Amino acid sequence: MRIVLGVGGGIAAYKVASLLRLFTEAGHDVTVIPTEAATRFVGVATWEALSGHPVSNSVFDEVHTVNHVRLGHEAELIVVAPATADLLARSAAGQANDLLTNTLLMAGGCPVLMAPAMHTEMWQHPATQANVETLRSRGVTVLEPATGRLTGADSGPGRLPEPEAIFTAAMALAGAPVAPAGASVGPAAEPDVNAVLATGPSAEPLAVPPLAGLTVTISAGGTREPLDPVRFLGNRSSGKQGVALAAAARDAGARVRLLAAHMEVPAPAGVELVQVETALELRKAALHAAADSDVVIMAAAVADFRPADVSGTKIKKRDDVADPVISLVRNPDILQELVEVRDAASRNQLIVGFAAETGDAEGDVLEYAEAKLRRKACDLLVVNQVGKDRVFGEDTNSVVILSRSGSEPQEASGSKSDVAAAVIDRISAELSRVVPPA
Fold first, then answer.
1. How confident is the model at residue 186 (pLDDT cuts 50, 70, 90)?
2. Higher-confidence residue: 174 or 36?
């Protein structure tokens, strides 16, 4: 894998030499781009010796290869460590005043991971936190810094995670295998500064984002079935819950694809947006997207029926014409079809359905939902009771998560973001039960 390793100008830059060795020993081709400030901590000769490639931080070197464009286009993974407060700010602002920030702007859709390191006050400053949120909203994975001894006598959050933790997170994000256990990092990867800088005991290993390296497809909103050029059959779905799910999956490290029917809220930043209108359009998009998805969440409110005939002109209301009779036909069951296609292909994929139910004299909401789960055979079914002034268009929700495995139903309530976080956590738990760790 072609990796660009950006190095920011902080004292923790010396640790990145060990990270570079982990990448190269795992067989990856690494180009190092230090900032000018970073070369004051670790010299260019160290990076060239460990990477086997020439090292520069200027856009004016190797101009004939258009280096500031080529490196970003060719990279399959970009890792920045340490990501200083200054580097986070310049990246969030889209600045391109050196080779590293140019490369970040030219990244051709490859995963980008940034490992911050700075003093606690700098990390916790509102400006830094706003920059981190901006980057994450654009799909950049920004790790949480470790907590431990900093430079001088200071201690707290802001310490660069250990090289092994960054390496593991980067490999998970890129969907690449981790190097075999026991791979050593030789003395050459440990600069002399390590002997004179007291950094204290290591912090706890960094947790890899739970959905890092996975592709998650989510449907949201309500489908609309045309009657004529101006009228349609629709539903009350606002898309808020689906959008919250997309944001939660993105924040959990996943690559997110959002299949958006009619929505009253914008799609979150940092996700791939596919717009649809009808149930048939959603079916086509969902089957296509599911082919390379690890998780499929069908949260859209899909019309069960559509008009059998669609008028090419507006249906007129005239006194001399009888009231129109609209014949309906069933729409395909997209969720059930996704399960059937997955099972036929023996695909390792988790499929989550949503059920908006109302009770009646023949059964309550959970009884109908449990019957639906048996019919659909999806892995999880998220159930809520709907009605006037309930769920649709509201900012809060209350759901029960049912599992095909027969585990106890799980309740979640609160804001739709809270519910989305609970659903994503449950998905992560289900995946950890069936997918062995990397």
1. very low
2. 36
Taking each helix axis as running N to C, give the angle between helix 67-74 and helix 99-106, from 0 to 180 degrees, rounded to the nearest 10: 50
**Residue 202 falls inside a structural domain:** no
| Beta partners for residue 141, in sequence order | 113
The DSSP letter of residue 275 is E
pLDDT higher at 105 or 363 = 105
Report the C-alpha gap between 409 and 403 in whole angstroms. 7
- Looking at residue 106, its amino acid is M
Catalytic annotation present for 235:
yes
Contacts of 281 (CB under 8 A, 6+ apart): 223
203 domain residue, yes or no: no
Amino acid identity of 322? A
Domains of the chain: total = 2
Same domain membership, residue 326 and residue 367 = yes
Residue 204 confidence (pLDDT) above 70: no
Contacts of 342 (CB under 8 A, 6+ apart): 290, 349, 351
CATH number for the domain that contains residue 65: 3.40.50.1950
Out of 57, 67, 102, 235, which one is annotated catalytic? 235
